[in-house]
Amino acid sequence: MKLQRFTPFLERQGVVILDGALATALEARGADLIDPLWSAKLLLENPALIRQLHYDYLLAGADVIITASYQASFAG
């Protein structure tokens, strides 16, 4: 979201609620994250699980969801 569009939203809301833990919530749903890519491996192996988790956070009241791209590349 561009800053010009975010500022009025923030002025109306006063606060912005981000989504919650990603890896912890994925593990609670049965995901095995023992991998060099951690939760990012699910972007390839089970993207539906990532989508559902983000959707559930939005239903719970999150205003913003973050990407699942942490640790999304191998060294080298």
Structure report:
With 76 residues, the protein is an all-alpha fold. The chain has one domain. Helices cover 45% and strands 0% of the residues. The protein contains four helices and no strands. The protein has helices at residues 3-13, 23-28, 42-45, 47-59. The model has no long low-confidence stretch (mean pLDDT 86).
Task: Describe the SSE topology.
Blueprint: H1 3-13, H2 23-28, H3 42-45, H4 47-59
Query: So what's the overall shape?
Result: elongated
Percentage of residues in strands: under 5%
Low-confidence stretches: none
Rg, rounded, reads: 15 Å
Q: For the terminal residues, how far apart are their CA atoms? A: 32 Å
Average pLDDT figure: 86
Helicity level, as a percent range? Answer: 40-55%
How many DSSP helices? 4
Main sheet makeup: none
Structural class: mainly alpha
Whole-number total of structural domains:
1
Number of strands: 0
- Succession of helices and strands: HHHH
Which keywords apply here?
76 residues; 45% helix; single chain
Task: Summarize the model shown.
The chain has 76 residues and is mainly alpha-helical. The chain has 4 helices and no strands.
